[in-house]
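Methods: example folding runs. The two proteins below were folded one after another, and each record is reproduced exactly as written to the output file, sequence line first and structure-token line second.
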Amino acid sequence: MKFQAYIKPHVVSIVTLISMLPTAVVAAPGFVSKVNDTVITNSNNTYWTPQRLQNAKPLNLPKPTNQLTTQTAPLAGTPVSVSGQAPTVNIPPDLQNKLFQPRQINSVADELVQPNNVGSVGAHFTSSRLVPLSADVVYPYRAVGKLFFTIPGQGDFVCSGAVIKPRIVLTAGHCVHSGSGGQKGFFTNFLFLPAYRDGAAPYKSWSWSYVMTPDAWAKGNGVVPNAADYAMIEINDLPFKGVNRKIGQVTGSLGFKTFSLFPNHATLLGYPGNLDNGNKMHQVTAQSFRTQTPNSVEYGSDMRGGSSGGPWIQNFGVASVGQSGGQNPGLNQIIGITSYGSVSTDPLYQGSSVPDSRFVNMLNTICNRKPGNC
């Protein structure tokens, strides 16, 4: 980004040219990235037909393939934190913006095994629909959404994600990249629907322009736990009443705090296919249960496929009058991202990589890629 600073008068034109290149350049050491060379704007996004959206399947949570090794000491470093930001423009939700009719694919029996608040590993949690359901269009919930994408040769899938900057959506590395193959390992056709509910996109659907993930995931052969199973997607702007808006202006954004996943307590949000068929935002509240090698922490949860990439948020919500912060007062800060979990319904836990300096470096890199990203 020093190059951009040196020729500041021409930053916009050069960034525009870069965004049109057919292939991407690794943005910084330690990361793999890709420019979208097929769908440049939301206006010409023709891939996602109602049928494709309807048939997209929840991406299975990666099953732990590493030998689980509980770490005896907390994962620690010097935390970096940024607060969440409420929406800066007043855009009323349009729940009549129905993109497709969701399919009902799960049996009642499959749903009945889920409400447990502790599994066989002993990780306690509380799991619930949003109460009321309409909370999903209110900040801070509305900064969370459903991510649609295509895995070449396999089909269309869904994960979860969250807005963390004016043009940046955070999700899991395994929701954007296979874990091997370099740039060829990237998936495509990313489409983000904030506050998605029952086939509706109340704040429209947003296409992508750029994606990046750390080497730890992109070169890790899909093995979890993984030291950095997360990714960031740059999102194209959309017009609202004739004015182009960034996604963060419309939905607000969540903050983040590194090295804060253990010990802590969090609200886990996402769209798990095993609960309400992934058609409604779901929430789990839990505290840190145990640490795992490498650089991972597990919390109790009954969410499964489709919840990948969902945010784990400390101090979630809106402060009451008279409420004062304690020793960790940061509101609506992401401390983890859903990475992996058990395939069976008995253990009831999920794991997340600990956001660390790689997270901060990646965010700085994608922020500097285009003026106004952050």
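Second run, written to the same file directly after the first:
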Amino acid sequence: MRRNSRKFASHQYDRPMKLLSESALITSAIVANNRMNRERNASGVNSYEQEFKFKPEAWLAAYIQQYGHVKWLDICCGQGKALIQAAGQLAKNQLQDKAALSGMDLIDGFWSVPDGVNCLSFAIQSAVSWEPATPYDLITCVHGLHYMGDKLHVLSKIFAAISENGVFYGNFDVNSVIITGAGKDHLKKIFRQNDIQYNARTKVLYCKGPRAVTFGREYVGADDQAGPNYTGQEAVTSYYN
């Protein structure tokens, strides 16, 4: 037990004495300095393909062929390199008029959108305060959830924002969520009940089609001093009652 934590008699877990609010977490050095997704490619080495086992460029083209149009939202997109690469491929194949790609990140470090690409936009945005205005056919979040406070709130919004034929892929560690009085299998059970796939080995969440998922828990704060998670990088643990 860390020196700055104490035991709550009726709780299953120790809780740090000081938990950060959402506004304070945004300014945390752990969150502001994380570079987990800054220069990740769409496919190939150090890529979304490696994380989720599909090539975004090919997936987008196949979706357009089947449904006529595609919308991709990349949450915590970093510099937006993967989006730019995918958008460039769509433009090259004369498909960008059938696509709308968007990325959001807390930090304004986006690469410039190349000339000739008009299907891509970026926004400086917190996923916790984000309010989806439209369904998305592809939603991705590569290692971004590790640095969020109210992770369950964000997941609820993501699941609801998936289009009827759309999918979500995201990295998620159930060990980063501590719920008073609930064991580590609690979230896995909720995922199973809602037909959401969670791979405990790869730490990847997958959902096809929209879901109305209510976790029914009160968010009380986040610990940015929790230490490294399974990636070996410093991460944030979220606490709920």
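Comment on the second run: The longest strand covers residues 162-171.
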